[in-house]
Automatic annotation (TrEMBL):
<keyword id="KW-0732">Signal</keyword>
<keyword id="KW-0325">Glycoprotein</keyword>
<feature type="signal peptide">
    <location>
        <begin position="1"/>
        <end position="19"/>
    </location>
</feature>
<dbReference type="InterPro" id="IPR005519">
    <property type="entry name" value="Acid_phosphat_B-like"/>
</dbReference>
<comment type="function">
    <text>May function as somatic storage protein during early seedling development.</text>
</comment>
<dbReference type="Pfam" id="PF03767">
    <property type="entry name" value="Acid_phosphat_B"/>
</dbReference>
<dbReference type="InterPro" id="IPR036412">
    <property type="entry name" value="HAD-like_sf"/>
</dbReference>
<dbReference type="InterPro" id="IPR010028">
    <property type="entry name" value="Acid_phosphatase_pln"/>
</dbReference>
<protein>
    <submittedName>
        <fullName>Acid_phosphat_B domain-containing protein</fullName>
    </submittedName>
</protein>
<keyword id="KW-0758">Storage protein</keyword>
<dbReference type="GO" id="GO:0003993">
    <property type="term" value="F:acid phosphatase activity"/>
</dbReference>
<dbReference type="GO" id="GO:0045735">
    <property type="term" value="F:nutrient reservoir activity"/>
</dbReference>
<comment type="similarity">
    <text>Belongs to the APS1/VSP family.</text>
</comment>
<dbReference type="InterPro" id="IPR014403">
    <property type="entry name" value="APS1/VSP"/>
</dbReference>
<dbReference type="InterPro" id="IPR023214">
    <property type="entry name" value="HAD_sf"/>
</dbReference>
Length: 253
């Protein structure tokens, strides 16, 4: 076909498809159809939040700005409020017994406390996780509360739930973690589970399931569980309802 015939055809194809934001067809392995960054990253976020993506290491570099906008903008707060509101609606359907065994489990990082000030300095999940520098941040004990979670926490306590905290942080971080929780406004938790020596190396799902099983063995009824990772919520001895908070910055298997 002569070039002068091909050009108008190509242009008309681009015009016809640009309204759907499909601007370039590539042969990349993960995405045959290349779409604009916003649309691509929104779909990527859907796949990581639903766990369709499974294990992932870093956010795609083209999504750093998208994740930043999400985390710093109204959308993250709105999503958190939505999750908290569904959680509270469920909690209100539970008949609290007189034995003090009606429990709700919270994860800590990106569930009760926000490490956004740290991730703002570290590419919003686009950098390889550096445990040493993250632990230095944890030691400062100044992570703010996620407001929707603090409100849910307080409402659950008013309803009569025992709040249990279950974190992948280590026992060595118990004091700074307690200090940070108090600094952020959390009070009167029933238990705080951290990884002890015997939990070292266990996948998060196994470690957290074992701790939940401990609670069940002590007679607790785990009605609800809130976490930003699927590994907070899956496994065995799971809660009657699990509530996944958004976190497009990192994945913990
Ligand atoms: Mg977490």
């Amino acid at each position: 076909m002569a070039l002068h015939l091909l050009l108008p055809l190509s242009l008309s194809l681009i015009c016809a498809t640009s309204s759907q934001s499909i601007v370039q067809v590539t042969t990349s392995v993960d995405h045959k159809i290349r779409i604009d960054d916003n649309l691509y990253c929104d779909s990527w976020r859907f796949s990581v939040e639903t766990n369709d993506a499974g294990l992932w290491q870093k956010i795609p570099s083209r999504c750093q700005m998208f994740v930043q906008d999400y985390m710093e903008g109204a959308r993250y707060r709105s999503d958190l409020e939505s999750v908290a509101s569904f959680s509270l609606a469920f909690a209100k359907t539970i008949k609290i017994g007189p034995d003090g065994k009606d429990a709700w489990i919270f994860d800590i990082d990106e569930t009760l406390l926000s490490n956004l000030p740290y991730y703002q300095l570290h590419g919003f999940g686009s950098e390889t996780f550096d445990e040493a520098s993250f632990n230095q941040w944890v030691d400062l004990a100044v992570a703010p509360a996620l407001p929707a979670s603090l409100n849910l926490y307080n409402q659950l306590k008013l309803l009569g739930f025992k709040v249990v905290l279950l974190t992948g942080r280590s026992e060595a971080q118990r004091n700074v973690t307690g200090k940070n929780l108090l600094y952020a406004g959390y009070r009167d938790w029933e238990r705080l589970f951290l990884r002890g020596l015997s939990d070292k190396g266990k996948p998060a799902t196994v470690y957290k399931s074992e701790k939940r099983q401990e609670l069940v063995n002590k007679g607790y009824r785990i009605h609800g569980s809130s976490g930003d990772q699927w590994s907070d919520l899956m496994g065995f001895a799971i809660a009657e309802r699990s509530f996944k908070l958004p976190n497009p910055m990192y994945y913990i298997a």
